[in-house]
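Entry:
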Amino acid sequence: MSIALLNPADSPTLIPELVEPPFELIDGVPKEKPPMGFFANVLATYLSTAINHFALPKKLGMAINETTYKANDKNSRRPDVSYVEFSKFPPLETLQDDPPLLDCAPNLAIEVVSPTNTIAEMDKRIDYFFKSGVQLVWVIHPQSKRVHVYESTTDCDILAVGDVLDGGKVLTGFSLPVAELFNVASFFS
């Protein structure tokens, strides 16, 4: 099956998943979201796997890579990884229709910083996430091997190798040593 790709400038109603490359809506304006690099994607996949190993057996929720979430008709975002409690999922019939986005904010949004990201852009994303209802934001910094854990736009803990990342109130009981996350590259050698 092939999908006709939309030109965002010609589309009065942008559906981000039907556009290549992926777009987000920011104040009604389509903005391209650059794809993650390979290593950033490896880290994102590792995080979503670790979260799912914890959350799925307990039937709590699911971590999903690069899914778009709609806050309103003019704004949507596509975190690198998100965690959504099952209570927020649409009914099975709706899921089976394979909607292009989820109409609610995830509980946890995770961004993996890559060379194409700027500090100003990341600050805006964090602010947006909290305004849209996200409860926890993790920003992964591969170059410095640090994880910034935001419980609000003004409450940030910076974790380094030697610290343990935990799920806070969103994923109570989840923990992952920061060293383990950044040692994922050792699988390649």
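Residues 38-55 form the longest helix (18 residues).
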